[in-house]
Write a structure and sequence with these properties.
By secondary structure, the protein is an alpha+beta fold.
Length: 141
């Protein structure tokens, strides 16, 4: 039994823990630390089907700057979610691929994509209020 399961079984909340020198309150906070932000999930999503070169990723994310893309790729690599392969050719090129660990984030990303589409539809229909949507009284997670 994992520590989280043990605490849930006992009716307790997940205890605070430390990751990468930071205090975390729960696994959701850790998840957002690792894959959150504007570009990490789109990068993982683009790598889900195939290995891509830096230039291919850059073209597929036209609003990201080179500096930010490089930073996000380095953070994803440091987290073990993607791998980076430098090919010793002239000029050199670099490939990025999703790792097995990175693949475990894809279902969460798909759920967030589905929720985003649902929210967009509700917002477009003028249904941003819980009362108008019929979500009033729905228990909060």
């Amino acid at each position: 039994m994992h520590i989280h399961d043990r605490y849930l079984h006992q009716g307790k909340c997940m205890p605070e823990f430390e990751y990468d020198g930071r205090r975390m309150n729960n696994p959701v906070e850790l998840s957002l630390h690792v894959i959150g932000g504007k570009w990490k999930m789109p990068i993982l999503w683009r790598l889900r089907a195939e290995t891509r070169r830096y230039s291919e990723l850059r073209r597929s994310l036209p609003r990201v700057t080179d500096r930010m893309l490089t930073r996000q790729l380095r953070e994803l690599e440091a987290s073990g979610l993607i791998s980076r392969t430098v090919h010793p050719v002239v000029p050199p090129h670099v490939d990025y691929a999703i790792t097995d660990l990175g693949r475990t984030a894809l279902p969460a990303i798909e759920s967030l994509r589905a929720w985003g589409r649902l929210y967009l539809e509700a917002s477009a229909a003028g249904g941003t209020s819980a009362e108008r949507d019929g979500w009033a009284g729905t228990p909060h997670p």
